[in-house]
Amino acid sequence: MAQAKHISDPQGKKMSCSKAGGSPPPSVEQDQSSNEMDIKNICFVGAGHVGAPSATVLAFFNPALHINVVDISEALVRRWNSNSRHLPLNDEQGLCDLVRVTRDGTLPTLLWTDDDGAMERPGRKPNLVFSNDVKGGVREADMVFLCVETPTRSEGEGAGMAADTGSLEKAVKDVARWAKEGVIVVLKSTVPVGMARRVREMISMIRPTLSFEVLSNPEFLAEGEAVRNLLEPDRVLIGLSMTSTGHAAALALADIYTTWIDQEKIQKISNTSAELAKLTANAMLAQRISSINTISAICERTGAEIAEVQTALGSDNRIGAHFLQAGIGFGGSCFQKDVLNLVHLATSLDLRDAGDYWLQVLQINRFQTRNFVQRVISRLDGSLADKKVAIFGWTFKKGTSDARETRSFHVVKELLKEPVKEITIFDPGCDLADIRAAIRSPGGLESGKSECPNSNVTVHDNPYSACQEADAVLILTDWEQFRCLPDPERPSVANPKDHGVGAASSPASYISLGHTASSGVRSIISKLSIRDSPEQNDRSNAFTNPLGHLKPELPCPADCRDCNNKTSLPMSADVQVDWKRVSTKVKSPGWVFDGRNMVNVGEMQKLGFRVEAIGKASVWESDAY
Ligand SMILES: NC(=O)c1ccc[n+]([C@@H]2O[C@H](COP(=O)([O-])OP(=O)(O)OC[C@H]3O[C@@H](n4cnc5c(N)ncnc54)[C@H](O)[C@@H]3O)[C@@H](O)[C@H]2O)c1
């Protein structure tokens, strides 16, 4: 057990820390007297989807702290240090401005006083640095957040199930080698249960004399909403070891969060509980999607409508409406791996039934994709021979360029099992080069197809060339750009069968892109304006432009590598697909298979399409119920 002790930090302030081992364990409810840990310098290891936004928001709200974000990827760090045109994750609303404020600092601004005079508010100093200097970042830090990837293990024991903690262990070794006395190690990555204990053991083994603490602080942000989730989290979990030094470390971390998050939202629990809560949160969200997807399959065979069932279920407070949208299944880098991680944990604890229960969530996800593809094949006369299929949507969900574990990949893979003539792919938010790389990567769509060097899968920068002469359009991502909005001028068309297909597929079909985007931004901006213009009497244009004192950016140098490696995002993010135009391109009878319930079936019919939607019985099938 650890022996609590006091040492002096370089600034001569008192810090309380422990050696692995520890003092008598107080209970988790017991709040420790005072936070003696003086945190001045923080290092985030990993500048990816979690590390960089988390570091940026933390830096924004804690201007007195110096934050280093370190990553082993030179290309990624170069982009984080670049002109805002090349910043990674620039689809995350608000992130670019926050990076500019914290990384570059701001200019002084004029504030209006009560008597209509003006006073100057000083600019802000930069406090966020991106670099590849892992050693330097860790060495200076009082607190190190580990935010590296933990994918499913592809080889060795537990392959296909357990989390690959290789990158994390490498980062932990770096901490053990270079960290300063009293360092607090914060696990932000999603980790297997028991990892905090293992990290503790690893560090003590490598550097037995080091005093340190390990906290679990799993992240719950969703890609595409990272800034909003970080600004307004439902809760912050801080897992700690039940020692006095563990409590002091947790208090130090909580103090940082309470600069912008209410104290009541911070839950201090044990390390193991925090680790398990994170895995379970993702598993339960995935489970809800699989649950509703099984019901959507039943709807397709009974004539019940999934949109109506969803509304009925979602309005029950005990159930709630979140994660109840039927579709072709969940994707993304987290859900599958975290469910697998839970299955692995349960089976390794000899709880086979519990493991099987969670495994079924993944089986349903695969079933749903196959079911969708089978429906496509069956409507196209039972064969894809000589058929062209256009895919609309490659990312795993709207609002992100991330296509890790996207269901679109699996749909295309299923389609390729058939003698399909051509598959085209269009996505409004994913770099064309990234889609091409995913298709051609080892294990990608074309692996094992060496006999077919001329690929029949092509990537397009607009929906109209993608669907030219297509036999079917498949909507696979819930991009708002894919919605077909009602046109009051268009005459209605009689339904081929009375299944109510002429009605909107769901009230959500009418949510416009502008509405959803602006409410998100408003929420972010109002938060930022409070923080960035704290003076009550600030009459500057804080609401419309709270970051108006951003420093002007320098243009990219002539030899800018990122300009030369131009990312090729297709059409502008707020341009809707013109379905009328699509209707002139596709082959008759204009099949559209809506895997995300994005289009208004009635409106599409007026344009001459035949729509098959998830969770809705077919009106075109001769033997439909
Ligand atoms: N992506 C999400 O939406 C999300 C949400 C919540 C939690 N998480 C969890 O957070 C963790 C990180 O996920 P992510 O999506 O940010 O991953 P990511 O792949 O986007 O980023 C990880 C970064 O860590 C860097 N890295 C790896 N090893 C390193 C090392 N030893 N030193 C320095 N840098 C190193 C990589 O180069 C990469 O840039 C994972 O455990 C994930 O499960 C992710």
UniProtKB/TrEMBL annotation:
Residues 1-34 are annotated as: Disordered. It catalyses: UDP-alpha-D-glucose + 2 NAD(+) + H2O = UDP-alpha-D-glucuronate + 2 NADH + 3 H(+). The active site is at residue 334. SMART domains: UDPG_MGDP_dh_C. Residues 1-12 have a biased composition (Basic and acidic residues). Belongs to the UDP-glucose/GDP-mannose dehydrogenase family. Its EC number is 1.1.1.22. Substrate binds at residues 220-223, 278, 323-327, 331, 397. GO terms for biological process: glycosaminoglycan biosynthetic process; polysaccharide biosynthetic process; UDP-glucuronate biosynthetic process. NAD(+) binds at residues 71, 150, 190, 223, 337, 404. One of its GO terms (molecular function) is UDP-glucose 6-dehydrogenase activity. Residues 390-496 form the UDP-glucose/GDP-mannose dehydrogenase C-terminal domain. SUPFAM superfamilies: 6-phosphogluconate dehydrogenase C-terminal domain-like, NAD(P)-binding Rossmann-fold domains, UDP-glucose/GDP-mannose dehydrogenase C-terminal domain. Keywords: NAD, Oxidoreductase. This is UDP-glucose 6-dehydrogenase. Pathway: Nucleotide-sugar biosynthesis; UDP-alpha-D-glucuronate biosynthesis; UDP-alpha-D-glucuronate from UDP-alpha-D-glucose: step 1/1. It comes from the Eukaryota.
